[in-house]
Design a protein that fits this description.
about 475 residues; alpha/beta; Rossmann fold; seven-stranded mixed beta sheet; two-stranded antiparallel ribbon; about 50% helix; about 10% strand; flat; transmembrane; transferase; membrane; undecaprenyl-phosphate glucose phosphotransferase activity
Length: about 475
């Protein structure tokens, strides 16, 4: 490593980095995606009420067009004030010109007041500029809402990795705390002034992730290191760490692969949750909405089931079992008790056909999946989603993570009440390694291909499945 690189490294990591880079998992990226379209629409409505005294149908139609042309909004938080002015001005000229041209071509422009249009022409960019400046003021508070910064490691202490670390340091809006570097050369082969920055070698990377609670890995390795990169990815499959490439590289078996920009530098995600940024907002909002509605509708049913359980056998109505949730963190999942025992220890026997532990009421509940209904409370708590990989008992997790490659990757998302695997034949007992492998394969397929439409499809198929499936007992 050159002296220049060592000096850059020392300057970069001498103090803790708690500056975040804007990326898809940053709440600011969600706000930015909505800022421009809503600022333009808000200014249009204000002008309409001021000039015409009402918000008529043509202006509502124009609002829809404005949203379609502007969503998602541009990322401008990292821009200088001069760049911000130029970007907003040029962008608005293009939008306003296109709308005027469309209005003339269709003749629909006659539906609008010229006074309102020309007032909006100067009010819109001014409103967007004010909104952008306001966002810069509240950005630190928005970042705090997301909790503490995410700890990260850069693999590869080369010029590229050092430049990336420097960009993270200079970022004003950060959720990354850079713990240090990992380098294949080892501490003994680096210059003395840089050894404090290297936490270890590639062989100990998985251990570092666990011991230092690392949440992100940025791979800054040359393309010639492909075999080594694949070994790293393989070693990290027993963790829930998010992995990114810096810069453009190619690997197979990607989970939500996408390019992203971190402090102005392009990185590539190779193992990431689909629920970041706007997608995360959509997923959580839909979970809260549907779980609330469903719980309101089934309250009488929940009461009836609780009475039946208490009438049929002694013991608690709700069975609380430990499961692994998002990022492999332990959570408590609720179910209606369906057995005479409430096992939650280190060894758990899966339910089998004609299992003597299952009560009469429990047999019906398990057959119809009604025992899962309390998990809608888990959804409202934020521990689970309506759709996602089914949570397994802690004891089962510890067993299968050692036997199935990529098993822990399914914990990049919250566990679900139902899932892609369940509607594809993997509902009920998984008494063989092959069955569990099949379930995990479908779970990972869900992570790769998630969409809101897929969630709706899974919910609809689940309803049909519980009425006719013979695999649950």
């Amino acid at each position: 490593m050159s002296e220049t690189h060592a000096q850059m490294a020392s300057a970069t990591l001498r103090r803790p980095l708690q500056h975040a880079a804007l990326g898809r998992d940053n709440l600011l990226s969600v706000v930015e995606s909505l800022l421009s379209p809503f600022a333009l629409i808000f200014s249009l409505w204000l002008v309409c009420w001021y000039v015409e005294g009402t918000l008529s149908a043509p202006y509502l139609i124009l609002s829809v067009l404005v949203f379609a042309l502007n969503f998602p909004g541009q990322a401008r938080l990292q821009s200088t004030p001069r760049q911000l002015l130029i970007d907003i001005g040029l962008h608005w000229l293009w939008i306003f010109g296109l709308l005027m041209l469309t209005g003339y071509a269709t003749g629909y422009i006659r539906e609008y007041s010229w006074s309102a249009l020309w007032t909006w022409a100067w009010a819109a960019p001014l409103t967007e500029l004010m909104a952008s400046m306001a966002l810069r003021i509240v950005a630190p508070a928005v970042l705090r809402l997301q909790g503490p910064p995410q700890r990260a490691l850069i693999v590869g202490m080369n010029a590229q990795g050092l430049d990336f670390a420097e960009k993270i340091k200079r970022s004003r809006y950060s959720r990354i705390e850079l713990a240090g570097f990992v380098d294949s050369r080892g501490v003994e082969r680096l210059r003395p002034e840089s050894t404090q920055l290297v936490l270890g070698t590639l062989d100990g990377l998985a251990g570092l992730v666990q011991s230092r609670h690392i949440q992100r890995i940025y791979l800054s390795l040359p393309m010639a290191s492909q075999p080594r990169i694949l070994q790293i990815l393989d070693a990290l499959k027993d963790t829930t760490v998010s992995i990114y490439f810096v810069p453009d590289m190619f690997v197979t078996d990607l989970i939500q692969a996408h390019t992203d920009t971190v402090c102005g530098m392009t990185v590539i995600s190779v193992c990431e949750t689909p629920f970041t940024g706007f997608h995360g907002f959509v997923k959580r909002s839909s979970d809260i909405l549907f779980a609330s509605l469903i719980l309101l509708l089934i309250l009488p049913l929940l009461a009836a089931i609780a009475i039946a359980i208490k009438w049929n056998s002694p013991g608690p109505v709700i069975f609380r079992q430990r499961r692994y949730g998002l990022d492999g963190e332990e959570i408590v999942v609720y179910k209606f008790r369906s057995m005479t025992v409430t096992e939650d220890g280190g060894t758990i026997a899966q339910a089998r056909k004609n299992d003597p532990r299952i009560t009469r009421t429990g047999a019906f509940l398990r057959k119809t999946s009604l025992d899962e209904l309390p998990q809608f409370i888990n959804v409202l708590q934020g521990r689970m989603s309506i759709v996602g990989p089914r949570p397994h008992a802690v004891a089962h997790n510890e067993l299968y993570r050692k036997l199935i490659k990529g098993y822990m990757v399914r914990h990049k998302v919250k566990p679900g009440i139902t899932g892609w695997a369940q509607i594809n034949g993997y509902r009920g007992e998984t008494d063989t390694l092959e069955k569990m492998q099949g379930r995990v394969d479908f779970d990972l397929d869900y992570l790769r291909n998630w969409s809101l439409l897929l969630d709706v499809l899974i919910i609809l198929k689940t309803v049909r499945l519980v009425l006719q499936d013979q695999k649950a007992y």
